[in-house]
Amino acid sequence: MTTTTQTTLSALFAIALAACGGSREATSSTRIGAAGGSLKTASGARVDIPAGALSREVEVHLREVEPRNGAKARIEVELPAPLVLAARISMKTEDSAHHKLVEVENEVEHGIETERHNEVEHAREAAVKHGGTFELRHAAVCAEACGAGLECDDGVCKPHGDDSAGVAPNADGTCDPGMELDDGLCKPHGGSTGGTPPVNGACPDGMELDVSDGTCKAPGGSTGGTPPVNGTCPDGMELDVSDGTCKAHGGGTGGTPPVNGTCPDGMELDVSDGTCKAHGGGTGGTPPVNGTCPDGMELDVSDGTCKAHGGGSGGSGGGN
Questions:
Q1: How many domains does the chain have?
Q2: Which domain, by its residues, includes 29?
Q3: CATH number, domain at 54?
Q4: What number of other Cβ atoms are within 10 A of residue 303's Cβ?
Q5: What does the DSSP 8-state code read for residue 5?
């Protein structure tokens, strides 16, 4: 057999193999850096990496390969290192409500906690921070019809748009209103252990710094408050000496520091922590002046401070 004949037969065999669906491989590659980026295949498989997920420019590969074990589609995502913020991996199918996106490792299927149904794009998607092999597979059917506001998700009726497990951040690395960043994922406010990162050390209006994880959260949703400015807390807030941050009055274990040893009007010295608190909010009162308490106050001999009549264990101090 001549070389020309061999070449012709090889070409014909390749054409016949392709016609029979013998190869479905398609690869998309691009370089993505700190600004983020996307890549997709002709069939609709897609990877979206948000800004801030990568610290340097790297080569990212998305490869569509032959599915196995009855799966509808299979992709391989190659990343050189784990991401700081989660990327969105999605695979389109017209019958998306009856499919699920899974991760495959050593040909064993693993569910993805963040997997969800994107009804608008007719796709299954998931937020992930690593590369790997992912397949689009048929989902289990619910035994009974789901009620109003619910949808069948792999045999289980769940609320529409249940994002409690988290979704990938937007292209610019931010979360939608009502959500906050938690370990690279966007989650509903109060449904995470973290918030949004501060900008130049400051939290946005209406949020406070949670010193336990260094993120900004809605007031009352954190274990810390906002940092004092030049040692002073904003109006309506007091210093919590347990963590050195400012919190709403009554939200901390301490008050505001005295000025030149004196507390502001309407406040008294709490000798247990040396800060000023609202009357009745501390364990001490105001210090006497030249051994004398102001009108309407009496000396509490248990701590040597002046308190409102009836609020101490002793009487008024004597004058000079």
A1: 1
A2: 24-159
A3: 2.60.220.30
A4: 19
A5: H
Identify which of 133, 129, 62 has the alpha carbon closest to the alpha carbon of residue 101. 133
Residue 49 lies in a domain: yes
User: What does the pLDDT look like over 236-280, one tens digit per residue?
Assistant: 777 776 666 777 665 544 566 777 777 777 777 776 667 777 665
70 occurs within a structural domain: yes
Question: Which long-range contacts (C-beta less than 8 Å, at least 24 apart) are formed by 177-180?
Answer: 180/215, 180/217
At 110-134, the pLDDT tens digits run 999 899 998 889 999 999 999 999 9
pTM: 0.50
Encoded tokens for 188: 């509903």
For 140-162, give one letter per residue: b (16+ CB within 10 A) or e: eebeeeeeeeebbbbeeebeeee
DSSP secondary structure letters along 284-313: S-BPPBTTBPPTTEEEETTTTEEEETTSSS
